[in-house]
Design goal:
- The protein is of the alpha/beta class.
- It has two domains: about 35-385, Alkaline Phosphatase, subunit A (3-Layer(aba) Sandwich); about 390-490, Arylsulfatase, C-terminal domain (2-Layer Sandwich).
- About 25% of the residues lie in helices and about 20% in strands.
- The protein has helices at about 1-25, 60-70, 85-95, 120-125, 180-185, 205, 210-225, 255-280, 320, 350-355, 370-375, 455-470; strands at about 35-45, 70-75, 75-80, 110-115, 130-135, 155-160, 190-195, 195-200, 230-235, 285-290, 325-330, 335-340, 345, 385-390, 395-400, 405, 410-415, 430-435, 435-440, 475, 480, 490.
- Strands 8-7-6-5-9-1-10-11-2-12 form a ten-stranded mixed β-sheet. Strands 14-15-16-19 form a four-stranded antiparallel β-sheet, covered by helices on one side. A two-stranded parallel ribbon has the order 3-13.
- Strand 15 and strand 16 form a beta hairpin.
- Helix 7 (about 210-225) packs parallel to helix 8 (about 255-280).
- The protein is globular and about 55 Å long.
């Protein structure tokens, strides 16, 4: 009896201690040092076929190839529109750009910008105490109220819009109204630090410094914030025309200046990786590399390649909206993986919010969490459907899994026109596109219309499109969406 009594006393003591431990408040980490750092590198007009790991030849991209070997390469990764501002607005907000009133490319004379009421990736991550820096092209409004420091970023160095939005010719002469009446009236192309212009970009020699300037500031940012979670956004101005390269890579490729420029971007990626490694934080950093849209094909040898995809920038064909994307996160993204599922830049914000534990924006977004894809889950398919918009709000196509239904619309075309050379644009044309269905698994070049073979698929995709039109509208059919929002408006 005594032994049993002692045994029960022991059990009672253990239970009591366990209960006391359970009632102790959870110890919260004193800082957010375990949150992953995030590096998002965005190129301008880099095509699907412009990296060695996507098939490029006659120049090398060793740092990006190693990034892909150590992480995941996406083969069906999309931007929201095949044009600068619309694409960047979507990346920053997780929304189709037409939902938030941004279409096309904003000019130095534009009266709108990204509405400060929209939450950017930076603003979402700030809720988890991330330090946020952007070094490169912004292109979401040039007025102070629209600039990065008012949109969640702590530091900014870069151009407020595209590097061709200046009043100079390639030879350094000033553009005359006879040559280009729009460019002749452009203000200076400013390099902005914080909210202030620190120099005017006037020459091709100035242009040649941009990739290095952005990279150096990005490395300084990494060194400065190595002991706290940070979000580094590095949106390069290149290889958008006019292209220029520093002496480090001038003449280094077998494909001329364009190859040199891409090699310098690859160098920049290497510098970022080296800075992470030197600071001992490479293993706790997510790196995402992608492009804002496809190549500007009529610029010929100063433009990139869409590989086997149809058309390029300024179209809703695959060559315009499908872009290269590489992601690396040691210990989370399996090495050397290829993801063939659909994903998009609009999915980056909700994915990073999920990873960091930050709440999503209060206003409706369109992105989905693609972390299961990143982690290599073969059963995951978070995005079955993607919509192809162009202009202000024109629904030109819809994709579900392998099927893409293209709606009747007018499209720019590069086909049948000789491209330009050495920075001079070639001509483009316009075509009328009819209703057509493509099986992108068999026909990524969109050459064989199979709508008559699969009427049930056409019917299903039409129904999906009708639901989207009710939500977002459709400029082609003059439908106003129920859930679109206004852009920011210039102060008067």
């Amino acid at each position: 009896m005594r032994t049993d009594h002692l045994t029960w006393i022991g059990v009672w003591i253990l239970i009591s201690l366990s209960t006391l431990q359970a009632k102790e408040p959870e110890k919260k980490p004193s800082d957010d040092s375990k949150l992953p750092n995030i590096v998002l590198i965005l190129t301008d007009d880099l095509g699907y076929g412009d990296l060695n790991c996507y098939g490029a030849t006659r120049y090398t991209t060793p740092n990006l190839d190693r990034l892909a070997a150590g992480g995941m390469r996406f083969t069906n990764f999309y931007v929201s529109q095949a044009v600068c501002s619309a694409s960047r607005a979507a990346l920053m907000t997780g929304c189709y750009s037409n939902r938030i009133g941004i279409g096309g490319a904003l000019f130095p004379t534009s009266k709108i910008g990204l509405n400060p009421q929209e939450e950017t990736v930076a603003e979402v991550l700030k809720k988890k105490n991330y330090k946020c820096g952007i070094f490169g092209k912004w292109h979401l409004g040039y007025q102070k109220k629209f600039l990065p420091l008012q949109q969640g970023f702590d530091e900014y160095l870069g151009l407020p819009y595209s590097n061709d939005m200046w009043k100079y010719n390639l030879d350094g002469s000033v553009v005359t109204p006879e040559q280009n009446k729009n460019k002749a009236g452009f203000p200076p192309l400013p390099l902005i630090d914080g909210d202030n212009m620190v120099m005017e970009i006037k020459t091709m020699e100035d242009q040649a410094t941009l990739t290095t300037r952005y990279t150096d500031r990005a490395v300084t940012f990494i060194n400065k914030h190595k002991n706290e979670p940070f979000f580094l956004y590095l949106p390069h101005s290149m290889p958008h025309i006019p292209i220029a390269v520093s002496g480090k890579y001038k003449g280094k490729s077998d494909q001329g200046l364009y190859g040199d420029v891409v090699m310098e971007i690859d160098w920049s990626v290497g510098q970022i990786q080296e800075a992470l490694k030197k600071n001992g934080i490479a293993e706790n950093t997510i790196i995402i590399f992608t492009s804002d849209n496809g190549p500007w094909l009529n610029f010929g040898n100063h433009a990139g390649s869409a590989g086997a995809l149809r058309e390029g920038k300024g179209t809703s064909w695959e060559g315009g909206q499908r872009v290269p994307c590489i992601m690396k996160w040691p210990g989370h993204i399996p090495e050397g993986q290829v993801c063939n599922k659909i994903a998009s830049t609009i999915d980056i914000l909700p994915t990073l919010a999920n990873i960091s534990g930050a709440p999503l924006p209060k206003l409706k977004i369109d992105g989905v969490n693609i972390l299961p894809l990143m982690e290599g889950n073969p059963q995951a398919n978070p995005r079955e459907v993607f919509f192809y918009y162009y202009n202000s709000n024109c629904l030109e196509a819809v994709r579900k899994n392998q099927w893409k239904l293209v709606f009747p619309h007018n499209s720019q075309t590069y086909e049948g026109f000789a491209p330009g050379n050495d920075g001079i644009a070639g001509k483009t044309g316009n075509i009328r596109v009819g209703l057509s269905l493509f099986d992108l698994r068999r026909d990524p070049g969109e050459r064989y219309d199979v709508k008559d073979l699969y009427p049930d698929v056409v019917s299903e995709l039409n129904k999906i499109a009708d639901d989207a039109r009710a939500d977002l509208g459709d400029g082609i059919l003059n439908i106003k969406g129920a859930n679109v929002r206004e852009p920011g408006i210039e102060d008067k």
